[in-house]
Specification:
Layout lengths: L13 E4 L3 H12 L5 E5 L14 E2 L6 H21 L6 E2 L2 E4 L3 H16 L4 E4 L1 H7 L11 E4 L3 E2 L2 H14 L3 E4 L3 E7 L2 E7 L2 E4 L3 E3 L5 H8 L6 E10 L12 E4 L4 E6 L2 E6 L14 H14 L8 E11 L6 E6 L5 E9 L4 H18 L47
Parallel strand pairs: 1-2, 1-13, 2-9, 5-15, 13-20
Antiparallel strand pairs: 3-8, 4-8, 5-7, 6-7, 10-11, 11-12, 14-17, 14-18, 15-16, 16-17, 19-20
Length: about 425
């Protein structure tokens, strides 16, 4: 365990709040960048939140240039992990199909593909018969074609938690589990430290993460962060020969917000209900699950008669525009809090997490990054009610479009 029982130091070069994918990798990147004394505080244990309950999808086929860049960087990071760490997150190159079921989807997909290929993404268009040939488990004749990227894949989320735990340990990041962040300490608009349940730490550099709990972390810091948590459900079927990975590229039905991929000889599929309000509910919604399972059986008929090996629900984070947050913390007057950086992966922790973490570490150190253009990804893109001035990423799970209202914020019409 990485120094979980050591005494909290009085000073640090940087304090990272949150031990999920974004926070943990960010702490490692800060240490790798040359900071000697990096402290990470986590109110639970490393990876005990959404990181260990994810589906592990790593897709470069984003709906915006920023999403594509983040996906590319994260995939490349997963591929080089073993050389750097001696372990890795278990990336599997599987290929990812985004099928189209209407002409409107075809038009949007072709426009999106032009943007993606312009950024160097090896994505190609498949005609309906090519879709059926590539994915023999899919019911034939359903699609109007789709986009496919053979380089997309998935990781094993618990193995990712192990990988960043190893990274933190080997790099001597000071990790303090079961330590609650309580307050941001500032003076004249500049951060001077943090107060935690284990005592204060003086520092001029703080990174706030927290996944579904990020808004609460922000409230403790006196910073409004328009992020929320919502239920996400995942299931894994029993094994079946027709679900051999060679017959089953990953797929995302954007119409229904339903995705699937191979998993241990069976099929893993996941979903979120766009009509469900934000909450921390981790119980399985039997009615919505049944609706999506019927959709799954129509698309992949072999699943209709298969038993389920595992079903779970997790709380996953989201932002109103489905895009990440990477930028300085901002006080009640909207001005930046010098020394504070905020990071959120917007429900794409496995897909974007390492890139968001690297970009956040860079911004915390220098104010900018080469990972992705972060000029539009800060908190200043949101108004006082949490509405974004950016168009939402169109390739995203159907999370709610609004987060819970901030205390004192005007109502959303």
């Amino acid at each position: 365990m990485p120094m979980a029982s050591a005494q909290l130091p009085r000073t640090a070069d940087a304090v990272v709040v949150g031990g999920g994918t974004v926070g943990a990798w960010c702490a490692w990147f800060l240490r790798r960048s040359g900071l000697e004394n990096v402290v990470l505080v986590e109110k639970g244990t490393l990876g005990s939140g959404a990181s260990s309950r994810a589906a592990g999808v790593v897709r470069m086929q984003g709906g915006t240039p920023e999403a594509v860049r983040l996906g590319q960087w994260s995939r490349d990071f997963y591929l080089r992990q073993h050389d750097e760490l001696g372990t890795d997150s278990g990336f599997v190159r599987q290929g990812y199909l985004l099928p189209c079921f209407s002409e409107a989807e075809v038009t949007a997909a072709r426009a999106r593909m032009a943007m993606q290929t312009g950024l160097g993404l090896p994505v190609r268009w498949l005609e309906p018969d090519e879709v059926d040939a590539l994915n023999p488990t899919l019911a034939p004749g359903l699609t109007r074609g789709g986009t496919f990227c053979a380089e997309d894949g998935y990781i094993t989320p618990p193995r990712n938690v192990t990988a960043y735990t190893v990274a933190l340990t080997l790099s001597a990041v000071h990790v303090f589990e079961k330590v609650q962040f309580e307050q941001l300490l500032t003076e004249n608009g500049r951060v001077t430290g943090v107060r935690t349940s284990a005592g204060p730490v003086q520092t001029g550099r703080v990174v706030l993460t927290g996944g579904p709990k990020l808004a609460e972390v922000g409230r403790r810091a006196g910073i409004r962060i328009p992020a929320g948590g919502v239920r996400h459900q995942v299931a894994v079927t029993e094994q079946h020969p027709d679900l051999d990975p060679a017959r089953l590229p990953m797929a995302f039905d954007l119409t229904a917000g339903l995705y699937w991929r191979p998993e241990e000889g069976g099929l893993l599929f996941g979903m979120s209900n766009p009509a469900e309000p934000p909450s921390e509910n981790r119980g399985v919604d039997e009615d919505y699950f049944a609706l999506m399972r019927a959709r799954m059986a129509r698309l992949v008929p072999v699943t209709a008669g298969l038993a389920l090996r595992r079903v779970w629900a997790a709380t996953i984070d989201f932002t109103p525009d489905h895009l990440p947050i990477i930028g300085p913390g901002r006080g009640p007057d909207g001005g930046p809090v010098d020394g504070v950086t905020v990071a959120a992966a917007a429900g794409a922790g496995m897909m974007w997490g390492p890139a968001v973490a690297r970009a956040t570490a860079d911004v915390a150190l220098t104010g900018d990054t080469e990972v992705v253009d972060v000029s539009g990804l800060g908190l200043d893109r949101f108004d006082s009610a949490g509405r974004s001035k950016l168009d939402p990423d169109p390739v995203a799970l159907p999370f709610p479009g609004q987060v819970p209202a901030f205390p004192g914020a005007p109502s959303v019409p």
